[in-house]
Request: fold
Amino acid sequence: MNSLLQKTISIILVLFLSPIFVCISILILFFDGFPIFFSQNRIGINGVEFKCLKFRSMKKNAEEILKNDKNLMKIYLDNGYKIPEEYETRYTKIGLFLRKTSLDELPQLFNVIIGQMNLVGPRPIVPKELEFYKEEKKDLFLSIKPGITGSWQVSGRSEIDYPERVDFELEYIRNRSFVLDVHILLKTLIVVLKRKGAH
Reply:
């Protein structure tokens, strides 16, 4: 799926979903105030870092809480740079709902529009996660833009961890096609509606 088509689709989706964007923004403001969005440095094509956007689903000082809590940090590292829901205490009142429904990911449509992400591709990772991609695997992983959704997202997501996640991401890159992208987008809708494996 070429870049122009993806940007066009993303613009249409932003316009179509604008009422949802407004409603989520109001709810975040009402329950927890500013900021509405959360951005984090992620690795993009050719290893260039960019600000990956999300609706804020966690407390304003969520990153500081993680850094200052040794036990929580250990859980985070031991679980492939994520924290299982049963240990996560940093969500806002509506944050867990946003994560479970993947509505927190909607602002990444703007990342697609400005050319930092694709609709479909390997999920953007934090810099430390590159250690799981060795030598030629790293080069292959960095050869395309990360995606809002991808084969890992629709194949178990948080239930699938490294190194199996690496295999899913690289298999997609090796076999990517327009048909595969459409298949993943359609499957994403089903996964989101079932609220399966959100992370």
